[in-house]
Each structure stands twice: as C-alpha cells, then as structure tokens.
Amino acid sequence: MVRLITHNLLACHVRGCTSNNFPLVFKDVQLQLKEAEYNPDFLRGFMPKLEWKALVDTAKSLNNQSLPDQAPEPQAANEEFLKILHHVLLEIHVEEGAMLCPNCSHVYPISNGIPNMLLQEHEL
Amino acid sequence: MSRPEAQAPAEIYYGDSEAQKYTSNTRNQRIQAEMTNRAIELLALPPDESLFLLDIGCGSGLSGEILDELGHVWAGVDIAPSMLQVALEREVDGDLFLQDISQGFGFRPGSFDGAISISVLQWLLTSPTSHPTNSPPARLSRFFTTLYAALRNPSRAVFQFYPETDDQITLITSVARKAGFGGGIVVDYPNSKKARKVFLCLMVGSGKYASNT
Ligand SMILES: [Zn+2]
C-alpha cells in the first residue's frame, strides 16, 4: 500500500534528476479507504516533516479537498484538524496506478498497493 | 549449503516458495524477532514516543509487526516481490515499496526518525553484473549516501548482518563513514559460533534523540 504519508516524503531518485522531482504525480489511480488507529501525538510529531502544499495538491488530485491551505503549528493543531490530517495521511490507500516524475517523466507503477521503485542500469 | 547471497540475487532466491517457507518457519520467526528487538534496543529511541521508521529489507513484515506493536509507524522496502506479497497477505500496517536498496533512495531529507535492517546488508556485497555501477563499493555508496540524507539529525540506523570476512566489515564501515555516518560495529555473543550476531550501528549527528516528553 502507498499512502500520502510516504508519498509526501518521496522524490524521484533517477540519477541526475535533482530538481522539480517532487511530488510525484499520481496517474490512473484506484483508491481504497481503510481505517487506521488515530494517534494525535504521532501526527503532531510528524507534521514538521510534511511539505504542506504538496500534500494539499496531491490530496486534491485524489479528490480530497479537506485540508486547509495553511497548516497550523503542530502544538496549536486542534482535534478537528488532526482527524482530517489522520484520514488524508493514513487512511487513503493508492492500490493501483502510477507515480510520474514531473521532471524526468520516469513512471513508477503501483500494483497491488506496492510502488515499483526499481531503476534501469542507465538511470543509476 | 552455501549462504543465500552466494547462490542467487535476493529477488530470485526468495521466490514464492522460499518466501512462504521463510515466513512460516517458527525458528526463523523467533530469530528474526530476537534480532529485531535487539536492533530496536540499539536504536535507543526516546521512550513513549510514536515515531516514523524505515525497515530496510522488510521482507514479509516480521520486523514491521514488532514496530507496530511498539506504536511506531513504518515504511518498508524490499527487492523480493514474493516477500512483499506475503507481507500483503499478512496485512501488515506499513507502506511497502519494491526497491533495490543498492540503487539508493529518493526519500526527502530528514524523512525518518530511525531505520532498522535485519539480515540484508550482506546482499550489497555481491555484484549482479560486472558493470562498474554494480561493484559493491558503488552499491554501498548509493545506499548509505541516500539513507544518510533520508534520516533526521540526530538519529540512528541499526543493521544486523552476516559478514563473511573482516575485510567486508572494513569496506562497509568505511563507505558508511564517507557518507557521513558515525558509529560502528557491535558484536553480541562474540565467542559463540552459533549465537554470534553482528550489528552495524550508524549515527546521524550525535545519534542521541532528544525526547519531547
Ligand atoms: Zn525524475
């Protein structure tokens, strides 16, 4: 399974592809929603790692408009916000489709929820 | 019988039947759990915090389940599709990636609060082809450089692995140092041929987590 929590950390790793290589763009996705355990402390600790705009835009590309354009400070985040963030990061699973690098156009296929990150020898 | 990594690349060696066998073998499960618990101990994470960890060579998720039980969230990478398939069937909680760690990672800087790896590193000492991009130093260098970047400062990465010679340990630690890591080797039960376990404990920064609590 790939969820937005890991998608938001993932850039293209083809050799030489070092700018405009994030976020990878989802294509032709099939989604599944699965409940996950809500843990506000984990979410507050994780928030500083997020690229917020990329998260908002990617969620929108998956037809989820629930996130605010600006993230609150982690310590100021209220329960209503954290529950939305929890759902977006941890409960939306991309099961099929692909992730496309916006810079070099490398396609990382997703099958059975698992992205194929393998590169060809000339991409190393 | 010779070691698995001397016989075939991991993704071939761990085909469907090996992946099932490995995962359902209770002795493997017990040893894997022991090594995972020891690796987590060596990570020295702050107590009572739920963190985001990377399992390098996560296989069928035996280690990941232990991370789940401890309340952590994790992502796992493995080169063997059959192992990942078993992980899916066992409904592990972590996000899974089909990835050759010798090709390096694309995770953004500071993504993970720590990393563990059980019985994987020795696979990087093999060369799938004679091409220079596939030499063990090149494979190790891509791996350690991109892992170092993906870890937060400070944090640790702990690897249990099976070196065959001291030269292999020297090569691995020197490439890890060049990538920026501190730390070194910890040997448990050094005098027992059977129980002896080698751990590479790498540190980003001081390696000491400042607890929020
Ligand atoms: Zn790219």
UniProtKB/TrEMBL annotation, chain A:
Q: What SUPFAM superfamilies does the entry give? A: Trm112p-like
Question: Which Pfam families does this one have?
Answer: Trm112p
Q: Which GO terms describe its biological process?
A: rRNA (guanine-N7)-methylation; tRNA methylation
Concerning InterPro entries, the annotation shows: Trm112, Trm112-like
Recorded GO terms, molecular function? protein heterodimerization activity
Q: How does it assemble?
A: Interacts with TRM9.
Family stated for the protein in its record: Belongs to the TRM112 family.
Recorded protein name is: Trm112p-domain-containing protein
What organism is this sequence from? Serendipita vermifera MAFF 305830
